[in-house]
Amino acid sequence: xxxxxxxxxxxxxxxxxxxxxxxxxxxxxxxxxxxxxxxxxxxxxxxxxxxxxxxxxxxxxxxxxxxxxxxxxxxxxxxxxxxxxxxxxxxxxxxxxxxxxxxxxxxxxxxxxxxxxxxxxxxxxxxxxxxxxxxxxxxxxxxxxxxxxxxxxxxxxxxxxxxxxxxxxxxxxxxxxxxxxxxxxxxxxxxxxxxxxxxxxxxxxxxxxxxxxxxxxxxxxxxxxxxxxxxxxxxxxxxxxxxxxxxxxxxxxxxxxxxxxxxxxxxxxxxxxxxxxxxxxxxxxxxxxxxxxxxxxxxxxxxxxxxxxxxxxxxxxxxxxxxxxxxxxxxxxxxxxxxxxxxxxxxxxxxxxxxxxxxxxxxxxxxxxxxxxxxxxxxxxxxxxxxxxxxxxxxxxxxxxxxxxxxxxxxxxxxxxxxxxxxxxxxxxxxxxxxxxxxxxxxxxxxxxxxxxxxxxxxxxxxxxxxxxxxxxxxxxxxxxxxxxxxxxxxxxxxxxxxxxxxxxxxxxxxxxxxxxxxxxxxxxxxxxxxxxxxxxxxxxxxxxxxxxxxxxxxxxxxxxxxxxxxxxxxxxxxxxxxxxxxxxxxxxxxxxxxxxxxxxxxxxxxxxxxxxxxxxxxxxxxxxxxxxxxxx
Length: 633
What we know:
Number of helices: 14
Structural class: alpha+beta
Number of strands: 26
CATH class of the largest domain: Alpha Beta
Largest sheet: 7 strands, mixed
Helix content: 10-25%
Strand order of the largest sheet: 3-5-1-12-9-10-11
CATH superfamily of the largest domain: Aldehyde oxidase/xanthine dehydrogenase, molybdopterin binding domain
């Protein structure tokens, strides 16, 4: 390898450390207007009237737009169940109802940001309060308020897994443990709040310069909501100040496009941190109730679980997040008999969506908790009981189909445990934890924990996964320049650097000869999202395919040599509605960790002493160690 596998200067490093990199909030245009959003003042209410006269009369206010001004007035990454603006006069049925505090009611466009804020605060909304529901269990009750008429019981989705014979499984269990696990909301807290600039470009296209994770999906949602042809909408991402899943769904995109389209002038918006926290989705709070059974030898024989995920008021990516949790709540273990029911449930809470791991962390938290309970009940070492149950090459998943080839969970766990130096391997091959070192103070206790998990690569459950790339090879007698067009978003993870490295490697030129054109729907084809641990794999295969074709043209003296390639990985399939049988993913990564901590019994403070992390990320097994003084309650 000439370029891949080498430590190189990131292509965006200089601009980011010098401040020259431009983020959405750094862009301005002549004759620019400013936009502010009026968020809902209710968790659940019907809007009877919106009075905008005072706002329109305020100096500097140019326009106020409400639901009646949005042609289709609906959007959503998976389901179009959310109004762009809530209020009367909309073409979308039910758009006069706000279902959570982040619903948008109106936008004010003004000559200055201060005037837009003042105008927003002058809008009067007449609400008819409706009963709300904020707990997933309560939301499923027959008498609960219904958020969407087409979803009885507020159930957005229900997945089940039925594997083996549960009656026989429980009969074979020498010990049965139960547990309930609740995870909470998490805020992505990326450094750059939502911001953007809407305008008409030189071709007359409605253009939105914004931060996101999938330019072409943003383009489709904007075009749908405004009733415009797709080619009349353009989305450009400049530098993106963090994402972590938090930019998969819409924030200012459609509203900026609406204002620019209506007024034919550039319109800018920057959210405050408060607006950012109020206005974009969070990680799903998920409740898992589980019951696991095992033999006295420590082999799992039966698992049943109920998984309840709070979707909030709208779907966002909840159907897919809960599909992942449904698969991963049993952990990376061989389980012959399983009965799992998983629900995504509408409530009047803030919508929940993509966040690093996409349902996997919540599922793993419950599975690893249950493994520790089994170990305690059987007086078995926590690493040893995992060794006896982890999936191996050829293992069947709980969905009844084999894991894709390349399962290394057993080796990842073994390397992590042995490298941690906290366990000894006994003559019979079993593992036994060494006695813990003395704590640093009499009021403290020292402990060691072990956990393992798996994570999908790529979109799951039958979604038509694909990625496009174009490679241009320029030069007269030798390759002087390679231009790569690949739309995948650079959200801080280094994707654009590795795309350039892959192109250089595929063509056989130094990295400095590669130019990447990206993050603009007008100059690239659809790459799919910067999410699902997919972008390097998908973009890399698309770039390699385009580079091979371009090189062949170059060798045939067709110069400049230009080729476009679409990569499609192996297909996946959705859960069978009765059994859950499926081929949910085409690849996985595997991880195990050992963590040593000290806990202060008086204060509850936790001091992280040592972490060993072993990972198989579809390449050579990697190990990392860290020691630190990270403390927390």
